[in-house]
């Protein structure tokens, strides 16, 4: 996620490593992160937490793919049991 908090002690090392904690190298999620950061910058931290919640949820889904995994798990379980059942029939 985008780290939207300033470091306690700002040095040149914190500036050099700031880009390591973004999703800008991920071609799919970088637009989601930019929209979320622009929204948070426009509204500020307290109001942005409520106004930008949809953008934050979209970014989380893009990065972690929770909905896709929850949707795919039952299909994977069904296909793995059906292939083992088919292998039992082939042995007979």
Description:
This protein has 92 residues and is an all-alpha fold. The chain has one domain (27-91). The chain contains five helices and no strands. The protein has helices at residues 12-17, 30-43, 45-51, 53-64, 66-91. The protein is extended, with a radius of gyration of 21 Å.
- Output mean pLDDT: 80
- Tell me, briefly, the overall form: extended
N-to-C span: 53 Å
Oligomeric state, counting identical vs distinct chains: single chain
Uncertain stretches of 5 or more adjacent residues:
none
Biggest sheet, open or closed, and with what strands and sense? none
Brief overview, please?
This protein is mostly helical and 92 residues long. The protein is built from five helices and no strands. It has one domain.
Layout of helices and strands:
Blueprint: H1 12-17, H2 30-43, H3 45-51, H4 53-64, H5 66-91
Helix pairs in contact: 2-3, 2-4
Keywords:
0% strand; mainly alpha; 92 residues
């Amino acid at each position: 996620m985008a780290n939207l908090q300033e470091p306690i002690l700002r040095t040149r090392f914190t500036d050099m490593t700031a880009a390591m904690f973004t999703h800008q190298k991920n071609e799919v999620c970088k637009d989601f992160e930019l929209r979320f950061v622009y929204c948070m910058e426009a509204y500020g931290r307290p109001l942005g937490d409520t106004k930008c919640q949809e953008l934050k949820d979209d970014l989380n889904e893009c990065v972690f793919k929770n909905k896709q995994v929850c949707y795919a798990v039952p299909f994977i379980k069904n296909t793995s049991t059906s292939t083992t059942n088919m292998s039992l029939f082939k042995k007979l």
